[in-house]
């Protein structure tokens, strides 16, 4: 999964490999507030940093609650 994590002042490109993405308990959506943990690497072709996310959790509500809410909305 390739994504860009943003706040009001900055952005950070991020990738989550399939092995880590398999443990996600909720679908990622644009605008979702999350806490991502992992390691920072330099992406040489652009000369920029990117986060290799190993875990992503929603801010506030737990993952199970968020998944249930998203299912209800669907």
Quick summary:
The chain is an alpha+beta fold. It has 2 helices and 4 strands; from the N terminus they run ββαββα.
Features:
single chain; 74 residues; alpha+beta; 4 strands
Considering DSSP H and I runs of 4 or more, what fraction of the residues is helical?
10-25%
What is the first-to-last residue Cα distance?
22 Å
Percent strand: 35-45%
Query: What is the element string, with H for helices and E for strands?
Result: EEHEEH
- Radius of gyration, rounded? 13 Å
Number of helices: 2
Biggest sheet: strands side by side, in what order?
Answer: 1-2-4-3
Structural class: alpha+beta
Average of the residue pLDDT scores: 88
Which stretches are low in confidence, meaning pLDDT under 50 for 5 or more residues running? Answer: none
Main beta-sheet annotation: 4 strands, mixed
Tell me the total number of β-strands. Answer: 4
- Report the principal-axis shape: globular
Description:
The protein is of the alpha+beta class and 74 residues long. 20% of the residues lie in helices and 42% in strands. It has a 4-stranded mixed sheet with strand order 1-2-4-3, with no helix packed on it. The chain starts with a strand and ends with a helix. The mean pLDDT is 88.
